[in-house]
Amino acid sequence: MDISAILHKLSPYLREEVYYIVDDALGIDLQPQFAIHATEENKSLQTVTRIWDWLFSLHATRCALIVCIGGGVVTDLGGFAASTYRRGVDYINVPTTLLSMVDAATGGKTGINYGGLKNAIGVIRQPLDTIILPDWLDTLPSEQLISGFGEVIKTALLDKDLWKQGLGIEEIGLRIEDVLAVKRRIVEQDPTEQDIRKALNLGHTVGHAVEGLSIHQTQTSPLQRGLGGVLHGYAVMYGLVAELYLSVVKLGLDREILRQVSHLMVTHFGRPNCGCSDYDELIALMQDDKKNEQVGQINFTLLKAVGEPVINCTATEAEIKEALDYLFTL
Ligand code: GLY
Protein backbone atom coordinates (compact mmCIF):
# COMPACT_ATOMS: atom_id res chain seq x y z
CA MET A 1 0.00 0.00 0.00
CA ASP A 2 1.24 3.42 -0.98
CA ILE A 3 1.80 5.61 2.10
CA SER A 4 0.70 8.66 0.13
CA ALA A 5 -2.83 7.17 -0.18
CA ILE A 6 -3.00 6.93 3.64
CA LEU A 7 -1.62 10.44 4.13
CA HIS A 8 -4.02 11.85 1.55
CA LYS A 9 -7.02 10.46 3.47
CA LEU A 10 -5.53 11.62 6.76
CA SER A 11 -4.75 15.13 5.53
CA PRO A 12 -7.89 16.82 6.95
CA TYR A 13 -6.91 15.60 10.42
CA LEU A 14 -3.13 16.02 10.44
CA ARG A 15 -1.77 18.36 13.10
CA GLU A 16 1.44 19.20 14.92
CA GLU A 17 1.46 16.03 17.03
CA VAL A 18 0.68 12.81 15.18
CA TYR A 19 1.79 9.38 16.45
CA TYR A 20 1.45 6.20 14.43
CA ILE A 21 0.74 2.76 15.91
CA VAL A 22 1.35 0.28 13.12
CA ASP A 23 1.27 -3.48 12.51
CA ASP A 24 4.96 -4.37 12.03
CA ALA A 25 4.11 -6.82 9.23
CA LEU A 26 2.93 -3.97 6.98
CA GLY A 27 6.43 -2.55 6.49
CA ILE A 28 5.14 1.01 6.75
CA ASP A 29 7.51 3.80 7.75
CA LEU A 30 5.60 6.73 9.21
CA GLN A 31 7.29 8.55 12.07
CA PRO A 32 7.03 8.67 15.04
CA GLN A 33 5.95 5.06 14.99
CA PHE A 34 5.23 2.32 17.52
CA ALA A 35 5.33 -1.04 15.73
CA ILE A 36 3.25 -3.92 17.07
CA HIS A 37 3.63 -7.60 16.34
CA ALA A 38 -0.12 -8.14 16.01
CA THR A 39 -0.92 -11.36 17.86
CA GLU A 40 -3.70 -11.98 20.38
CA GLU A 41 -0.92 -12.58 22.96
CA ASN A 42 0.37 -9.05 22.40
CA LYS A 43 -3.11 -7.55 22.79
CA SER A 44 -2.23 -7.17 26.43
CA LEU A 45 -1.86 -4.69 29.26
CA GLN A 46 1.95 -4.98 28.86
CA THR A 47 1.72 -3.69 25.29
CA VAL A 48 -0.59 -0.85 26.35
CA THR A 49 1.92 0.08 29.08
CA ARG A 50 4.69 0.16 26.48
CA ILE A 51 2.59 2.46 24.28
CA TRP A 52 1.88 4.79 27.23
CA ASP A 53 5.64 4.82 28.05
CA TRP A 54 6.45 5.59 24.41
CA LEU A 55 3.96 8.51 24.34
CA PHE A 56 5.29 9.91 27.63
CA SER A 57 8.88 9.57 26.39
CA LEU A 58 7.92 11.73 23.39
CA HIS A 59 6.10 14.21 25.66
CA ALA A 60 2.87 13.69 23.74
CA THR A 61 0.25 16.16 24.94
CA ARG A 62 -3.54 15.99 25.13
CA CYS A 63 -3.66 17.57 21.65
CA ALA A 64 -2.01 14.53 20.08
CA LEU A 65 -3.60 12.48 17.31
CA ILE A 66 -2.94 8.74 17.30
CA VAL A 67 -3.32 6.90 14.02
CA CYS A 68 -3.74 3.12 14.30
CA ILE A 69 -2.87 1.25 11.10
CA GLY A 70 -3.51 -2.48 11.11
CA GLY A 71 -6.09 -5.15 11.83
CA GLY A 72 -8.32 -5.51 14.89
CA VAL A 73 -5.46 -6.19 17.31
CA VAL A 74 -3.80 -2.89 16.43
CA THR A 75 -6.97 -0.78 16.29
CA ASP A 76 -8.34 -2.26 19.56
CA LEU A 77 -5.01 -1.81 21.37
CA GLY A 78 -4.16 1.56 19.86
CA GLY A 79 -7.68 2.86 20.46
CA PHE A 80 -7.49 1.74 24.09
CA ALA A 81 -4.07 3.33 24.64
CA ALA A 82 -5.32 6.56 23.02
CA SER A 83 -8.54 6.53 25.04
CA THR A 84 -6.68 6.24 28.35
CA TYR A 85 -3.48 8.24 27.74
CA ARG A 86 -3.86 11.52 29.67
CA ARG A 87 -7.57 10.62 30.00
CA GLY A 88 -7.98 10.32 26.26
CA VAL A 89 -6.56 11.79 23.06
CA ASP A 90 -8.01 11.71 19.52
CA TYR A 91 -7.43 8.63 17.41
CA ILE A 92 -8.15 7.49 13.87
CA ASN A 93 -8.27 3.91 12.62
CA VAL A 94 -6.90 2.80 9.28
CA PRO A 95 -8.01 -0.85 9.14
CA THR A 96 -5.97 -3.12 6.87
CA THR A 97 -7.96 -6.37 7.11
CA LEU A 98 -11.48 -7.09 5.95
CA LEU A 99 -12.44 -8.02 9.52
CA SER A 100 -11.31 -4.70 10.91
CA MET A 101 -12.82 -2.76 8.00
CA VAL A 102 -16.30 -4.21 8.43
CA ASP A 103 -16.31 -4.46 12.21
CA ALA A 104 -13.47 -3.87 14.67
CA ALA A 105 -12.30 -0.43 13.54
CA THR A 106 -15.76 1.17 13.55
CA GLY A 107 -18.01 1.79 16.51
CA GLY A 108 -15.46 2.72 19.16
CA LYS A 109 -14.96 -0.59 20.97
CA THR A 110 -11.37 -0.69 22.19
CA GLY A 111 -9.58 -3.00 24.56
CA ILE A 112 -7.27 -5.84 25.41
CA ASN A 113 -7.42 -9.51 26.35
CA TYR A 114 -7.06 -10.21 30.05
CA GLY A 115 -6.92 -13.33 32.21
CA GLY A 116 -7.36 -15.53 29.14
CA LEU A 117 -10.57 -13.74 28.15
CA LYS A 118 -10.97 -11.93 24.83
CA ASN A 119 -11.46 -8.15 25.04
CA ALA A 120 -12.19 -8.40 28.76
CA ILE A 121 -10.86 -4.91 29.56
CA GLY A 122 -11.62 -1.87 27.47
CA VAL A 123 -13.68 1.21 26.84
CA ILE A 124 -16.10 2.38 24.18
CA ARG A 125 -14.82 5.62 22.72
CA GLN A 126 -15.35 6.66 19.11
CA PRO A 127 -12.42 7.30 16.74
CA LEU A 128 -12.38 10.64 14.93
CA ASP A 129 -12.74 8.64 11.72
CA THR A 130 -12.18 5.20 10.23
CA ILE A 131 -10.41 5.35 6.90
CA ILE A 132 -11.30 2.52 4.53
CA LEU A 133 -8.85 1.82 1.71
CA PRO A 134 -10.19 -1.32 -0.05
CA ASP A 135 -6.84 -1.79 -1.86
CA TRP A 136 -5.53 -3.39 1.33
CA LEU A 137 -7.75 -6.39 0.55
CA ASP A 138 -5.51 -7.31 -2.41
CA THR A 139 -2.65 -7.86 0.03
CA LEU A 140 -4.52 -10.28 2.33
CA PRO A 141 -4.07 -14.06 2.51
CA SER A 142 -7.33 -15.83 1.69
CA GLU A 143 -7.92 -17.01 5.27
CA GLN A 144 -7.88 -13.37 6.44
CA LEU A 145 -10.48 -12.51 3.81
CA ILE A 146 -12.61 -15.48 4.85
CA SER A 147 -12.30 -14.45 8.49
CA GLY A 148 -13.69 -10.99 7.64
CA PHE A 149 -16.44 -12.68 5.68
CA GLY A 150 -17.67 -14.20 8.98
CA GLU A 151 -18.50 -10.71 10.29
CA VAL A 152 -20.00 -9.76 6.91
CA ILE A 153 -22.41 -12.72 7.13
CA LYS A 154 -23.31 -11.73 10.71
CA THR A 155 -24.08 -8.16 9.66
CA ALA A 156 -26.08 -9.32 6.63
CA LEU A 157 -28.26 -11.45 8.93
CA LEU A 158 -29.20 -8.23 10.73
CA ASP A 159 -30.46 -6.45 7.62
CA LYS A 160 -33.01 -7.82 5.13
CA ASP A 161 -31.73 -5.74 2.18
CA LEU A 162 -28.09 -6.69 2.71
CA TRP A 163 -29.04 -10.36 3.06
CA LYS A 164 -31.07 -10.19 -0.19
CA GLN A 165 -28.06 -8.79 -2.07
CA GLY A 166 -26.43 -12.20 -1.67
CA LEU A 167 -23.14 -13.10 -0.10
CA GLY A 168 -20.51 -13.47 -2.79
CA ILE A 169 -17.08 -13.44 -1.15
CA GLU A 170 -15.49 -12.45 -4.47
CA GLU A 171 -17.06 -9.01 -4.71
CA ILE A 172 -16.81 -8.14 -1.02
CA GLY A 173 -14.46 -5.20 -1.69
CA LEU A 174 -17.38 -3.49 -3.42
CA ARG A 175 -19.76 -4.01 -0.53
CA ILE A 176 -17.74 -2.83 2.45
CA GLU A 177 -19.59 0.49 2.59
CA ASP A 178 -23.00 -1.30 2.55
CA VAL A 179 -21.93 -3.56 5.41
CA LEU A 180 -20.51 -0.61 7.32
CA ALA A 181 -23.69 1.39 6.80
CA VAL A 182 -25.67 -1.32 8.62
CA LYS A 183 -23.18 -1.36 11.51
CA ARG A 184 -23.05 2.44 11.71
CA ARG A 185 -26.83 2.70 11.78
CA ILE A 186 -27.00 0.32 14.74
CA VAL A 187 -24.10 1.97 16.62
CA GLU A 188 -25.60 5.45 16.14
CA GLN A 189 -28.80 4.31 17.84
CA ASP A 190 -26.97 2.83 20.82
CA PRO A 191 -23.25 3.73 20.98
CA THR A 192 -22.68 2.30 24.46
CA GLU A 193 -24.43 -1.04 23.88
CA GLN A 194 -27.26 -0.70 26.36
CA ASP A 195 -29.77 -2.08 23.90
CA ILE A 196 -29.92 -2.64 20.12
CA ARG A 197 -26.12 -2.62 19.64
CA LYS A 198 -26.19 -6.02 21.33
CA ALA A 199 -27.59 -7.26 18.00
CA LEU A 200 -24.02 -7.01 16.68
CA ASN A 201 -23.06 -9.72 19.17
CA LEU A 202 -24.94 -12.33 17.16
CA GLY A 203 -22.69 -15.40 16.93
CA HIS A 204 -20.28 -14.00 19.50
CA THR A 205 -21.29 -15.84 22.67
CA VAL A 206 -20.39 -19.24 21.25
CA GLY A 207 -17.83 -17.61 18.93
CA HIS A 208 -15.79 -16.03 21.73
CA ALA A 209 -15.85 -19.33 23.64
CA VAL A 210 -14.50 -21.22 20.61
CA GLU A 211 -11.87 -18.51 20.17
CA GLY A 212 -10.94 -18.51 23.86
CA LEU A 213 -10.67 -22.29 23.91
CA SER A 214 -8.45 -22.36 20.84
CA ILE A 215 -6.07 -19.87 22.44
CA HIS A 216 -5.36 -22.49 25.09
CA GLN A 217 -5.06 -25.45 22.79
CA THR A 218 -2.04 -26.78 20.96
CA GLN A 219 -1.69 -25.58 17.41
CA THR A 220 -2.89 -28.37 15.16
CA SER A 221 -4.88 -26.69 12.43
CA PRO A 222 -3.70 -24.59 9.48
CA LEU A 223 -6.39 -22.09 10.47
CA GLN A 224 -4.58 -21.28 13.67
CA ARG A 225 -2.32 -18.30 14.18
CA GLY A 226 -0.40 -16.52 16.89
CA LEU A 227 -1.04 -18.21 20.20
CA GLY A 228 -2.88 -20.97 18.43
CA GLY A 229 -6.14 -19.06 18.38
CA VAL A 230 -8.63 -19.64 15.60
CA LEU A 231 -9.08 -16.44 13.58
CA HIS A 232 -11.90 -14.30 15.00
CA GLY A 233 -14.18 -14.41 11.95
CA TYR A 234 -13.93 -18.20 11.79
CA ALA A 235 -14.98 -18.41 15.45
CA VAL A 236 -17.86 -15.99 14.76
CA MET A 237 -19.00 -18.20 11.88
CA TYR A 238 -19.03 -21.29 14.12
CA GLY A 239 -20.86 -19.22 16.74
CA LEU A 240 -23.41 -18.08 14.16
CA VAL A 241 -24.27 -21.64 13.23
CA ALA A 242 -24.76 -22.68 16.88
CA GLU A 243 -26.74 -19.54 17.71
CA LEU A 244 -28.94 -19.80 14.60
CA TYR A 245 -29.69 -23.37 15.71
CA LEU A 246 -30.81 -21.92 19.07
CA SER A 247 -32.82 -19.31 17.16
CA VAL A 248 -34.67 -22.05 15.24
CA VAL A 249 -35.42 -23.95 18.44
CA LYS A 250 -36.30 -21.01 20.67
CA LEU A 251 -37.62 -18.29 18.33
CA GLY A 252 -38.90 -20.21 15.32
CA LEU A 253 -36.30 -18.83 12.87
CA ASP A 254 -36.84 -20.31 9.40
CA ARG A 255 -34.66 -23.45 9.23
CA GLU A 256 -33.68 -22.51 5.67
CA ILE A 257 -31.56 -19.64 7.04
CA LEU A 258 -29.72 -22.08 9.30
CA ARG A 259 -29.21 -24.39 6.34
CA GLN A 260 -27.80 -21.58 4.17
CA VAL A 261 -25.40 -20.35 6.86
CA SER A 262 -24.31 -23.92 7.70
CA HIS A 263 -23.59 -24.41 3.99
CA LEU A 264 -21.51 -21.22 3.87
CA MET A 265 -19.59 -22.41 6.92
CA VAL A 266 -18.77 -25.84 5.53
CA THR A 267 -17.89 -24.44 2.08
CA HIS A 268 -15.67 -21.51 3.09
CA PHE A 269 -14.63 -21.95 6.72
CA GLY A 270 -14.38 -25.69 7.29
CA ARG A 271 -15.34 -27.20 10.61
CA PRO A 272 -14.22 -26.11 14.09
CA ASN A 273 -11.39 -28.12 15.56
CA CYS A 274 -13.05 -28.58 18.93
CA GLY A 275 -15.76 -31.10 19.76
CA CYS A 276 -17.86 -32.91 22.34
CA SER A 277 -14.98 -33.32 24.80
CA ASP A 278 -14.75 -29.50 25.03
CA TYR A 279 -18.36 -28.79 26.05
CA ASP A 280 -17.62 -28.11 29.71
CA GLU A 281 -14.80 -25.69 28.93
CA LEU A 282 -16.84 -23.97 26.21
CA ILE A 283 -19.78 -23.49 28.57
CA ALA A 284 -17.46 -22.25 31.35
CA LEU A 285 -16.05 -19.67 28.90
CA MET A 286 -19.59 -18.60 27.94
CA GLN A 287 -20.39 -18.16 31.64
CA ASP A 288 -17.41 -15.80 31.91
CA ASP A 289 -18.42 -13.81 28.84
CA LYS A 290 -18.44 -10.05 29.41
CA LYS A 291 -21.84 -9.79 27.74
CA ASN A 292 -23.56 -11.63 30.61
CA GLU A 293 -25.64 -9.49 32.91
CA GLN A 294 -26.45 -12.00 35.66
CA VAL A 295 -24.02 -14.39 37.32
CA GLY A 296 -24.42 -17.90 35.92
CA GLN A 297 -26.75 -16.83 33.10
CA ILE A 298 -25.40 -16.87 29.55
CA ASN A 299 -26.58 -14.00 27.35
CA PHE A 300 -27.24 -14.47 23.63
CA THR A 301 -28.47 -12.35 20.77
CA LEU A 302 -30.68 -14.60 18.65
CA LEU A 303 -32.65 -14.10 15.47
CA LYS A 304 -36.40 -14.34 14.92
CA ALA A 305 -35.98 -13.67 11.21
CA VAL A 306 -33.36 -12.00 9.03
CA GLY A 307 -33.28 -8.36 10.17
CA GLU A 308 -35.13 -9.18 13.40
CA PRO A 309 -32.60 -9.80 16.17
CA VAL A 310 -33.76 -10.49 19.72
CA ILE A 311 -31.30 -9.34 22.39
CA ASN A 312 -30.90 -10.62 25.97
CA CYS A 313 -31.92 -14.22 25.28
CA THR A 314 -30.81 -17.01 27.58
CA ALA A 315 -30.55 -20.74 27.05
CA THR A 316 -30.20 -23.73 29.34
CA GLU A 317 -27.06 -25.84 29.35
CA ALA A 318 -29.01 -28.63 27.65
CA GLU A 319 -30.10 -26.28 24.84
CA ILE A 320 -26.56 -25.00 24.38
CA LYS A 321 -25.20 -28.55 24.21
CA GLU A 322 -27.83 -29.43 21.60
CA ALA A 323 -26.73 -26.42 19.52
CA LEU A 324 -23.08 -27.49 19.85
CA ASP A 325 -24.10 -31.04 18.83
CA TYR A 326 -25.57 -29.57 15.65
CA LEU A 327 -22.43 -27.51 14.97
CA PHE A 328 -19.98 -30.33 15.60
CA THR A 329 -21.82 -32.91 13.53
CA LEU A 330 -22.10 -30.80 10.36
N1 GLY B 1 -18.20 -5.89 17.23
C1 GLY B 1 -19.50 -5.58 17.65
C2 GLY B 1 -19.66 -4.13 17.97
O1 GLY B 1 -18.86 -3.31 17.57
O2 GLY B 1 -20.59 -3.79 18.65
Describe what you observe in this structure:
The structure is a single chain. The strands form four sheets. A five-stranded parallel sheet has the order 2-1-3-4-7. It has a two-stranded antiparallel sheet with strand order 5-6. The model is unreliable at 218-227 (pLDDT under 50). Helix content is 45%, strand content 16%. It has twelve helices and eleven strands. With 330 residues, it is an alpha/beta fold. Helix 2 (45-57) crosses helix 3 (72-84) and helix 9 (232-251) runs antiparallel to helix 10 (255-269). The structure holds glycine. Glycine (GLY) is lined by residues 103, 107, 109, 197, 200.
List keywords for this structure.
five-stranded parallel sheet; binds glycine; globular; alpha/beta; 330 residues; single chain; 45% helix; two-stranded antiparallel ribbon
